[in-house]
Amino acid sequence: MGSGEVPEALPHIGLFIPQLKLSLLDLERRVHAAEEAGFHSVWLMDHLHPPRFPQLPMWEGLTTAAYLAAKTSRIGIGHLVLCNELRHPAVLAKSAVTLDHLSGGRFVLGIGWGSWPAELRTFGVSTSPAAVRSARLRETLEILKLLCTGETVSYRGEHFTVQDAQQLPRPINGQVPLLIGGAGQTLTLPLVARFADWWNCPAGAVRRIQQLRPMIGRARISVQRPVGVAWHSRDVDAARELAERRFPWGRNAIIAGTPDELVENLLADAADGVEMIIMPFADRAAPETLRRFGTEIIPAVHQAARTV
After folding, report:
1. Which of 64, 143, 243, 255 would be 59's cystine partner, CB 3.0–4.6 Å?
2. What integer pLDDT is reported at residue 230 of this predicted model?
3. What is the domain count for the chain?
4. pLDDT tens figures, 77-112
5. Of 202, 47, 178, residue with least CA distance to 111
6. CATH number of the domain enclosing 209
7. Please, which residues have CB within 8 angstroms of residue 172's CB and are 6 or more apart in sequence?
């Protein structure tokens, strides 16, 4: 079993590392550190410019995923989440299957209908309201499922049409694993229940997991947990302050503390039925932090989970 793999009964520990303000080499170094430290997966973002900070440099999501897939051997790769509005379903399907093969089956297709409409307007991509973007994602997922069969297929929807279309090769395991992110009860969770292998609960909704859980069908639960690590008890307040400043959008979900405190928090998530915990780090995932996290925290979480 590779260092990035864990038994299904144990919580997966993933790293969310937005590909901005980092050179590709710095990003690669962090992902290599995560892979060697035993992280299960690494997750990127998908935007045309960084939300709230359009002046910051950022790499494109799918291209970066391909780069990292070629530079790694065990760690899973995905996005929180791809914006469906940016790609035609057939283009998305071809990209996803290519990444599936390039990574040896390590790619998870994380997707959403696009919750940052200002960006879509800025670049002239879409002015559609949320309900329309959600409907377009439903059609995308229906087309994706058809194209992944490798058969010649036709589809006529309100937003997309394919006629006598065929794409090969097929995904390694027949379908690319699908993660849908978001917590909207009207537009998003019905898609999760119908299509998703994984539901990613965003940081702002983690306190509502049990309320929302009946609406996700058979999807497995992942959560986004911003993290501030304090290697000494005297540094806990500073770690929390940094995390709250870095992740104002996820303040309700932040966990900050010593290794023992972080283990306790991660085990509490697992006890609530969470099977994958995806973490952005307040120090932007410094390689040394990732290495120590893999030495002192991930094994402790897995060991404690085995005894429950």
Report:
1. 64
2. 97
3. 1
4. 999 999 999 999 999 999 999 999 999 999 999 999
5. 178
6. 3.20.20.30
7. 100, 101, 104, 105
